[in-house]
Every structure is written in C-alpha cells, then in structure tokens.
Amino acid sequence: MPLLDAAGRSDHGMHDALLDVAEQLFRHIGHRKTTIEDIAAEVGKSRASVYRFFPTRGSINHGVYARWAQRELDVLDQDAEMATSASIRVAHVLTRLNGRARERVICQPNVHALWVAAALEDWPVHHAYFRTLTTGFATIMGRDEGTSHLQGSSAFYMAQGIVTAMMAHLHPVLLEERMKRQKDAEADLKAHIAFVLKALNPPCLGGTCGR
C-alpha cells in the first residue's frame, strides 16, 4: 500500500498543492515553525480551506513525511530490478538508504527533524514505511534462485531480521547517535551489512550447500 494512502491521502488537487507548499516550508524553516497560516498564505487560501483537507495540524506532518518516506521506498523498487543476486541487491538498498539518511542528518536538518518526530511519536505511517521495507526485502529474496531456500514466511522473517539488525543504520534517532560516536561510518556500515548477509547463504551440511 502506498504510504500516502496510509497517511490519509485525498484525490483533490488542492490536497497535493497544500502538501507541496508544506514540504517546501518544512525544508526551509522546519515543521515546528511552519504554521497553518504560513501554508494558507502561500496558496492564497484561508485557514478554514486548509482544514477542509487536513483536519489536524499533525495530519499535514504525516502527509509530508509519507511523501519523503515513499521516495526512500522508490530506491528499494529501483534496486529490486537489478540483474544481480539478492545479496547484492539487499546490500545496495541498505547502503543507499543509509547514505540518504546520513545526508539528511548532515545536510538537511529540517528534513531529518521530521523523520525524528515520526519515529519518537510513533506515527502509523512510520511503521508502514518499515513494514513496506521489510516486504520489499522479502520479495527480493523470494525471487532469487540463490535464496530459493527462503520462501513465503521464511523470506519475510529473514527480511524482518535484516531490518531489525540494520536498525541502528536506518532509524533516524539511532543513526544520529551512531554518527556522533562512530569515526569510520563507512567501514562500520559495511561490516554490519556483511554480517547480516551471511544469513542469506543456504545452510551447509556435510560440505554441501543449498540442499
């Protein structure tokens, strides 16, 4: 399910226009400083017009976050089509998502602040993001011959394990704390990914793998 649906999307063009404006304001001055009046003024509407599409101030925050989170999931969709092994695709997705998250911490503090709010306030759309990420990893593994031993629920449980094990590199709060302490973030990330991906190898019994 698209995250915008989880956040309560409407089909009205004004709904999307308001989110466009809110997104720009959030990037420039932050979601906490942005007011309903700011958003209404940018589109030439009244406060009441904004509330017609967004019943609460929080619903605007959720809508903008859903947009940003969906763009991260688009990375997963792109890499899922790579003509490589499941391990390489999973590693590529994890590396790209971590890189984008670190960029938010360093270069886009206002964007990062909304991700932090979504995590700390336990927004449903934040949970939807990680559920969709987990499902995407399960799909990658389920379609690959090299991980054919992982099917159905096994693939999903393995995907859950991957996301959980990599949470310190994906969760906005945990990642920020890790970046403050870790001197070599790249080496740390590669080591964690290498450890996690060992679980994708078929079990080896008697010197024979994959049986």
**Which structural class do the helices and strands define?**
mainly alpha
Largest sheet: 2 strands, antiparallel
Order of helices and strands: HHHHHHHHHHHHEE
By DSSP, the count of extended strands is 2
| Alpha-carbon Rg, integer | 20 Å
- Tell me the β content: under 5%
Determine the mean pLDDT.
85
Overall morphology: elongated
Q: For the largest beta sheet, what order do the strands appear in spatially?
A: 1-2
Q: How many structural domains?
A: 2
Alpha-carbon distance between the termini?
35 Å
The unreliable regions are 204-211
Helix content: over 70%
Number of helices: 12
Brief account:
The protein is mainly α and 211 residues long. It contains 12 helices and 2 strands; from the N terminus they run ααααααααααααββ. The protein has 2 domains: 10-55, Arc Repressor Mutant, subunit A (Orthogonal Bundle), CATH 1.10.10.60; 62-203.
Folded structure, characterized:
The chain has helices at residues 3-6, 13-29, 36-43, 47-53, 57-80, 86-107, 109-120, 124-142, 153-165, 167-170, 172-181, 185-197; strands at 204-205, 208-209. The chain has 211 residues and is an all-alpha fold. It folds into two domains: 10-55, Arc Repressor Mutant, subunit A (Orthogonal Bundle), CATH 1.10.10; 62-203. It has a two-stranded antiparallel ribbon. β1 (204-205) and β2 form a beta hairpin. α2 (13-29) packs across α7 (109-120), α6 runs antiparallel to α12 and α8 packs across α9. The longest helix is centred in the N-terminal third of the chain and has 24 residues, at 57-80. The two termini are 35 Å apart.
